[in-house]
Structure formats: C-alpha cells, structure tokens
Amino acid sequence: MTEKEQKINVANDEILVLSELDETDLLFIQKEEVGVFIRTVVHDPVSIGWPNASEDFARSGVVLQALDEKTARVVLVVDDERARKNLSLYAAAYAFRGFTLHIDEATYLRPPYSKRDDSEASNSLKDASPVSSTQDSVGMEVA
Predict the structure, then answer these.
(1) Could you tell me which residues are beta bridge partners of residue 62?
(2) H helices of 50-134, where?
(3) For residue 110, what is the enclosing H or E element?
(4) Element of type H or E holding 33
(5) How far is Cα 45 from Cα 53, in angstroms, rounded to an integer?
(6) How does pLDDT run across 42-61, given as a tens digit for each residue?
(7) Alpha-carbon distance 138 to 56, whole Å?
(8) Looking at residue 31, what DSSP letter applies?
(9) N or C terminus of the chain: which is more exposed, having fewer CB within 10 Å?
(10) Coil, strand or helix: which one is 38?
(11) What is the pTM of this model?
(12) Sign of the torsion angle spanned by Cα atoms 21, 22, 28, 31
C-alpha cells in the first residue's frame, strides 16, 4: 500500500503537492521513535504553540506549530522535493496515530532557498549601515 500524491490548496493561491510515499516510508512512520518524536518534541507541553519546536527547519524545510497535544498546523513549507517529502511523512505519521495535521489556506508555500555566492554576501555586510539603539529606539525600559 502506498500513500498517493496529494494536492492541497494553500496560502498565496498556491497548490502544494505532497510526495507519494512508498512501503519503506510507511514502515518508517509507524516506528515507535517517530511517535515519541511527535509527542515529546513537536508537542512538548513546555514549548507547545511555538513554531519549529524541534528547531529543524534548515534540515526539514517545514515549520509546524503544535496547537494542543494531538493537533498541529503546518505554518510554512519550502517548495522543494525534500520539504514536500518531509511534510508527506509528517502527514502520514499524524494520520497513523490519529493526530490532526492542518495543511490548508493558512499554510504558506515558500519558494526554494537560493544561496547567494559568498562574495555577494560579504559585500552586502560591508555596505550595511551600523544599527544604533537607544532607550527611545528600543521602546521598552526594564526595571
């Protein structure tokens, strides 16, 4: 049995196409370690409600926001194959456990990251104006 490709309408008038999962993927999402990760990292009661609770956006390309102990929302997904595959795995893992993962018009599909070359990045840092802050510009005084 394989999970079929899914098309979902998301924010910015885009259509997110989730990757098809094969037997290996389906066996993976059924592992107890995957359930433990979802319950104790993504839905950790201490960090619940914070996007990217697992702090793995750079690796996964997906930001999830836990809403309660069994419900999360996909806030953002990068529009590349790696991120779509990761999101497909999350969606299947949530469904397998009877959890809810909202992927809908509130989910933002972000264009793929394009790296600037190092010389361009270093030049822009050299040209940047220094930022100064004063008590008035920060806007808050802590007693």
Answers:
(1) 77
(2) 57-60, 81-96, 118-127
(3) strand 108-110
(4) helix 32-37
(5) 11
(6) 888 777 656 666 677 888 89
(7) 30
(8) S
(9) C
(10) helix
(11) 0.73
(12) positive
